[in-house]
Every structure is written in C-alpha cells, then in structure tokens.
Write a structure and sequence with these properties.
With about 160 residues, this protein is α+β, with helices and mostly antiparallel strands. It has one domain: Cyclophilin-like (Cyclophilin, Beta Barrel), CATH 2.40.100.10. The chain has an 8-stranded antiparallel sheet. Strand 3 and strand 4 form a beta hairpin. The chain starts with 9 loop residues before the first strand and ends with a helix.
C-alpha cells in the first residue's frame, strides 16, 4: 500500500479486479470531493458496477441502476479546472448540462485531453492502475466488474 500523505483525501477502492488507491484533489474541486466523500461514507458506491468501459478511453461507474441513467439525486455545479485528463485521472461524468454531475465518475485509461475544461477533474489513481486496466470493456458491459467497497482512508484505519 502506498504511503498515504492525506488519509482524509484518499480513497481506497476495492474492485473485482483488485485494490485501487485514489488521491482526491480538494484544491481542484472542493465541492465534488466533499460530495464524493459524503457518498462514500454513506456506502453509496459499494457494489456499483463499471457500466461503461471504453478501451483506450475510460471506465465509468457510479450509477445505482448500472445503466448510466441514475445518480444520488443531487446535482453538482461544475468545477472545471486546468488539470488535464491523462492516464489515471478521475473526473465527473455528466449529461449535456455542465452542472449535471452527480455520483457518476470515470477513470481515464490514457490521454483524454479533448475533455479538458469540460469535465470536473477531482482526483487521480496513485496505485492499482493495473487493476483498472483489467476492468471488463463494453457499452453496456456484460457481467461487469464492480466496486466491492469504497472507503475514505481516514475511516479505514
């Protein structure tokens, strides 16, 4: 396990493919990080599937229906920032409305800089990207991988 510098802003994600450590960036998106932590602490993400996984692009999760049509019911105002969508970056999914992000997020497999300035980057994978790389692909994914559990590192100690 990586040496965790800020346990309050680090997520420990256990997936069906293995463990992933995500550094959250409240300096980039304070409201998104606060809301994600709230959902994590409520157990919202536990058992949720990666419903949309596009090879060379990204793995998306966070829909309680497993279809990409749902969320927690609380929309977030966009917090677009200068951080580039590169390998391991975690960013909020949204509908056409920039202020429609909710609980769905994606992890980039590679360079997705064409999304820069249009989606809210809120974190980055520190460890376990090799497990993210193994997540089953598809739109929709048949027999999808899932988040077994997602915890704030400060709570896992």
């Amino acid at each position: 396990m990586a040496d965790i510098k800020d346990p309050e802003n680090t997520l420990l994600m256990e997936t069906t493919q293995g463990a992933v450590v995500i550094e959250m960036r409240p300096d980039l998106a304070p409201n998104h990080v606060a809301r994600i932590k709230e959902l994590v602490r409520d157990g919202f993400y536990d058992g949720i599937v990666f419903h949309r996984v596009i090879d060379g692009f990204m793995a998306q999760t966070g829909c309680p229906h497993g279809t990409g049509t749902g969320g927690s019911g609380k929309k977030l105002k966009a917090e677009f920032n200068k951080e580039s969508h590169q390998r391991g970056v975690c960013s909020m999914a949204r509908a056409m409305d920039p202020n429609s992000g909710d609980s769905q997020f994606f992890i980039c497999f590679g360079d997705a800089s064409f999304l820069d300035g249009q989606y809210t980057v809120w974190g980055k994978v520190l460890e376990g990207m090799e497990h993210v790389d193994k997540i089953k692909r598809g739109e929709p994914v048949s027999n999808p991988d899932k988040i077994v559990s997602l915890k704030v590192a400060a709570d896992a100690a």
